[in-house]
Design goal:
This protein is an alpha/beta fold. The protein has 17 helices and 16 strands. It has helices at about 50-55, 85-95, 100-105, 110-115, 120-135, 150-170, 190-210, 215, 235-245, 265-270, 285-290, 300-305, 315-320, 340-350, 355-360, 365-370, 395-400; strands spanning about 1-15, 30-40, 40-45, 55-60, 65-70, 70-75, 140-145, 170-180, 225, 255, 275-280, 295-300, 325, 385-390, 405-410, 415. Strands 1, 2, 3, 4, 5, 14, 15 and 16 form an 8-stranded mixed beta sheet that branches. Helix 5 crosses helix 6 (about 150-170), helix 6 runs parallel beside helix 7 (about 190-210) and helix 7 (about 190-210) packs parallel to helix 9 (about 235-245). It is globular. The chain starts with a strand and ends with a strand.
């Protein structure tokens, strides 16, 4: 028995993927479309006339000509944490830079202190409203990084919080170990020693945790990430850490070129990283090399907007034939933004993406970053029924309008949520 039939929709979706270069702007549009859903998956796609007769359903949703899209995929967030950094917002407005605030003892280490002091229940309780807001804004799959613990106990507690949230909420969550986010206070001035600690202790422990987790049972990977930047981890340290993660069989990702191009992008490409994220300071030569690789460049327009800093040259990467995804980077310091539609709107204006490119970057390509490309990111028979119904007919409103919520309904695993 078909559980749900969505009728009279204007279906808009990318296909296959990951999509690179000019293909990033390709969309399939079906007018007066219907989607039949059974057992949480898309069973058939066709015209309303054909499917309505063929699929008696327990539930029917009349789209009334509105746009139906794949659920959005946020492939880079730091949404699990405790505390707030709103005071830093005012400090930046008064003229201090992100780097100056961090050097004075603020920044990420403030969130580390709050997160270390928080128990598992508090982490789950504080993070749940953020994830529910993301769901209301159309996101159905979210990557979440650790990295506000920087010690074995708290990093594992953060991963446990991600697992509990995955079980409790109608979202697909994907965990990433970011133990090398910054150097913790107890290792001040000894970044190399801390990298040794991460390699010797935290990586094996996280891998063991993942093997016993609900994520491994569902085939969802645990990736390892590093923040390669002046004042955090240099290129040699980042390379050593990512090589150790790869030796343990973990996919690797890297924060690179947010403020300075130190060479982290090239090091990550040497190690066949799944993605390189940020890219605001990347050189044209590095972007050309990235475009020739199978690594996805992940840009985060909301962070540049919030910090008032330069944007990654997403247009150059696409025009060079590269793979591009975009995310919110949702975090308490540089991107307190849960909205992928807003990130798309910013990317279209300041990174010169077309709406179709922004949509595919936040669905098909983002899903491939997370190893979920066969399951989510496009509306195709056999994939999970993760769908987004807008309150308008023209799907471009998702990137054109900003400041509100264009989402009328969200379907997750075939269920209206």
């Amino acid at each position: 028995m078909t559980a749900l039939v969505i009728e009279r929709a204007r279906l808009v979706t990318g296909t296959g993927g990951p999509l690179r270069g000019a293909a990033l702007g390709a969309l399939r549009v079906i007018e007066d479309a219907a989607v039949a859903v059974a057992a949480g998956r898309i069973r058939e796609i066709g015209s309303t006339r054909e499917l309505a007769a063929r699929h008696p359903a327990a539930e029917r949703l009349d789209a009334a000509g509105r746009a139906l899209l794949p659920g959005l995929v946020d492939c880079h967030t730091h949404v699990v944490y405790a505390g707030s950094r709103i005071g830093e917002f005012e400090r930046r407005l008064a003229g201090e830079s992100y780097q100056q605030i961090a050097a004075s003892g603020g920044g990420i280490l403030v969130t580390v202190a709050a997160t270390r002091a928080a128990g598992l229940d508090r982490l789950v309780d504080e993070s749940t409203p953020r994830l529910r807001q993301m769901l209301r804004l159309g996101t159905t799959a979210v990557e979440i990084k650790s990295g506000y613990g920087l010690d074995l106990e708290t990093e594992l507690r953060m991963l446990a919080a991600i697992e509990r949230l995955d079980a409790a909420l109608p979202l697909d969550l994907v965990p990433t170990l970011l133990a090398a986010h910054v150097v913790p206070p107890e290792y001040a001035g000894r970044a190399g020693d801390y990298v040794d600690h991460v390699i010797d202790k935290l990586l094996p422990a996280a891998r063991q945790w993942h093997a016993r987790s609900r994520f491994a049972a569902r085939g969802v990977p645990l990736a390892c990430d590093v923040f390669c930047e002046r004042g955090t981890f240099d290129v040699a340290q980042s390379r050593r850490l990512l090589a150790a993660a790869r030796a343990l069989g973990l996919p690797v990702r890297a924060h690179v070129d947010q403020f300075e191009a130190l060479g982290g992008l090239d090091a990550a490409l040497d190690l066949a990283a799944v993605s390189v994220d940020h890219l605001e300071a990347s050189t044209p030569e590095s972007l050309q090399r990235l475009a020739r690789s199978s690594t996805v460049g992940v840009v985060m327009p909301a962070a540049s907007f919030h910090l008032g800093q330069r944007y990654a040259n997403a247009r150059a990467l696409v025009d060079a034939g590269g793979l591009l995804a975009l995310c919110t980077d949702c975090n308490p310091g540089s991107a307190p933004c849960p909205s992928l539609p807003l990130a798309m709107a910013i990317a279209c204006r300041y990174q010169k993406l077309r709406p179709a490119e922004a949509l595919n970057a936040a669905t098909v390509n983002a899903a491939h970053v997370l190893g979920l490309g066969a399951e989510v990111g496009s509306v195709e028979v056999g994939k999970q029924a993760d769908l987004l119904l807008l309150d308008c007919r023209d799907w471009r409103e998702l990137a054109y309008s900003f400041g509100g919520n264009p989402v009328a309904a969200v379907v997750k695993n075939g269920r209206l949520v």
